[in-house]
Amino acid sequence: MKAGRKEIQRKRMWGYFLNAATEVIENEGMERVTIRKIADKAGFTSSTAYNYFKDLSHLKFFASMRFTKPYIEELPVYLEKGTNTLEKWLYSWECFCKHSFRQPQVYSVLFIDSLGGSPEEFLEHYYKIYPEELIGLPEQIKSFVMEHSFAKRSALYIENAVQEGLLAEKDVEYIADITLFIWKGMMSSFMNRRRDYTTDEAIEKTLAYVYESVIKVVPSSQQHHIVFQPTIKT
């Protein structure tokens, strides 16, 4: 019983701090988030916050997870647009780019920024506290959410394209890595204003580079099977 009460208390305290962090992010932006602001808003001291979160990056990571709900909910819709593994994967990229470039600070925290710890452990911990956020998601989508390493996640998914004759085994890891590098490079340039792109331009260009990197390794006899028509146009 004591362990059960401790877990209930921990979940309650996490809720207080994550609610406060979410409010600060929404009202002031990710760059204005501090432990003190979050603790004050939650009605506790900074030292209490550190009893539940390793550091600020830890708390920002978990708070950012809340902002990915629209992406997670919309992902199955995009996957349904594809008729084979590579098409589904390309449409999943459209969904990811759509949401990530419209909330760059959130997705940078989750996929680019240094966290001072293992993001896989953070994510597993998050869903132990909030397992209900996985309820109703297809098993395939759950694996997307739980596998934080984007390249590994992509490789596991597009492996099916090998059986479909759309991709050679030797190209799976290459495609998974190069597309991640494309997104990270574009996201960094976009956030740092190295390129004068609007949000939709950044999305469109990223998807174009992702598509080009994929189609060039698909056997020429199979390329007509890959139809990708993203809805975002500038």
Automatic annotation (TrEMBL):
UniProtKB keywords: DNA-binding
Domain HTH tetR-type: 11-71
Cleaved signal peptide residues: none
Pfam families found in the cross-reference section: TetR_N (PF00440)
Transmembrane segments: none
UniProt DNA-binding region: 34-53
One MF annotation (Gene Ontology) recorded for this entry: DNA binding
UniProt keyword DNA-binding, yes or no: yes
Domain of life of the native organism: Bacteria
UniProt name for this protein: Transcriptional regulator, TetR family
Source species: Alteribacillus persepolensis
